Amino acid sequence: MIPESERAALLRLGVLAGTAPIQDLFDAIADELSNLVDLETGRTRQIMSGIGRFDADGMMTVVATRGTRPDWPGPVGSRWKLDGDSSNAQVYRTGRPSRMENGIEVNGSISRLLESLHATSSVAVPLFVDDRLWGSATVVSDQPAPLPANIESRLAEFAALASTAISSAQRREEVERLAREHAALRRVATLVARTAEPEKIWDVVLDELGELCDAPLSSLVRFESADAVTVIAARTPAGPVDGLPSRWPAAGNTISAKVAAQHAVVRIDWSGVEGAIGEIVRERTSLRTSIMAPVFDQGELWGGLAVHAPKEQFLAADTERRLAGFAELVSTALANATARAEVRRIAEEQATIRRIATLVARQAPPAEICQTVADALAALFEVEDMRLFRYDPGDEVTVVGSHGLMAGDYPVGSSHRLLAGTAVDLVRRDGVTTRLDGYDDIAGEPASAARTAGLRSTVACPVFVGDRLWGALAMASLQPGRIPDRVLPPISDCVDLIATAIHNAEAEERLLASRARIVAATDEARRRFERDLHDGAQQRLVSLSLELRATETLAGEALRTATHELDAILTDLRDLSRGLHPAMLSEGGLPSAVRSLVRRCPTPVRLVLPDTWANVSEVAEIACYYVVAEALTNVAKHASASAVDLELTLDDQGVRVTVADDGVGGVDTGAGSGVIGIADRLETLGGSLSVISPPGGGTTLVAKLPAARVASTLNTCPFG
Known about the structure:
six-stranded antiparallel beta sheet, alpha+beta, Beta-Lactamase, seven-stranded antiparallel beta sheet, single chain, about 725 residues
């Protein structure tokens, strides 16, 4: 028969096992154990009793204790190593009750504890939960008389009944814990699915993980290099942790080093960690146990998710499984963020390339394109320095695009000596993309400037125009590690666009120079023809006319007729000569020649000329003369106009000729060769011609010659 007192105690334990937190059950078991010992011994003040749980790491955690000794050094949560020959250590090794009396031999952690209390005897019995050794129930006496002989059997009977209550409470708590775990994972998974930025997920993950694992500290670290990790976030139940070092070594037998090596969940006891980091943890924190699960991004090890517990706390055996589940969600969040970032990166790269291609398509100046490439790529790849060089004869380079830290030392337009060993020099030597990861072994001013600026990695790509190595595009970064290979394809696209722009500019310059030479040759041929006519046939005809006049009185009427015919031929020949190159233009300049054209025009012309006319090349004056001559001829022949407004202006922008009539309009600029010829001549000189001629609205012709083209001939391309 079970005594009534024990029956009542078991009923109380059964109720607690089904409803109360498991710690309340442990406390109740310790109370009933103390009552049982008091009944058996008849003493109430000199007996200590308690419940200990055996942990997987060979330690015992005190989960409940009772007694009257104020100096009891083993509070709930304290952990003791199961070494030596204490009664608890013997129960751990054998699974059977154990008694020690006639003094406690000091040969283990628990023995030293009892010796400090002057204990004289102890009895421990095993607690089995679901047929597994779970822990022990222990009584300790500090009295000279030994504990009763039947105390083991009485404690064993009680322990068997208490084990049933513990088993029931643990199953209930496990169900509740799984429910909490699934709820926490569901909340985090929902957040991962909805949130694009992983940084917004870290704190939620760490809070949920710390609460679920009952861990006072949780953290997330990132593996920045082979020997260092960076703390991304750290949380306690009270909130974020401040004051932690941001970077920690990941070498030796630290938890980070083990996770990096094993790519698996790792549990460590900091008391066994050697080196500086072990000393830091032991000296600055109260941590004893840490568990870390690896976090992957796109299959590559990214970092670790960890929970930490102080010396007096034990992290449950299934903490690794829970931690792995949360680490998988963090990995998913990173994968999602990486995928989104990759899409965003590709879109940004395409937008940059499209913007540069648009500049090339509208034939922007190469200088503008080169600087745009330097600015755009520096912003796109977040590098600190970007420069574009043109190779010059000898060992010289010219900066044609510059952005970033060293732009002040390498402004656009500056020339520099190309020093051996630099990335740009290696590109010139080999004609291929070149990397430099560090400047410690390179001598010279550029390398010294790079070291001073803190540049760590450089990539330089060749720029080919056709088969000719024209220059190099170089980017440099302050960030640790190499510039990633993913930057090379968009850089290659931009380099191709630069080459296209330079090729187009050079081709246009060659075309314009060729056309200018043709125009100049035509004008020179016209002048030569004029001189030949003037100095040759024209002079001979004049001489013949004078001779005929001298003999006119002798020959009579027939000779007079011949003389008049020669005068007519001579007049026509002079008119032809002036048509090839107007004498008025050579003698009085463009304003006088224009006045002559206005006087001969049958349609009234209102003429406006500039106050001064100087520093205009002969080539430009000839072009303007033919614009006016062609325009007034067209007005007289086709416009049916009553008046013409003719204006010449000269300023810093160049020469502008405007001819406007009030005629019938509707001019087809592609139908005749006159306007086309004028347009070709103007474009050769870098100018332009526009014609506005709506039907019935008159015609306005505007010719422009830029100032840069007025007083000088065309040069070769400045980027060639």
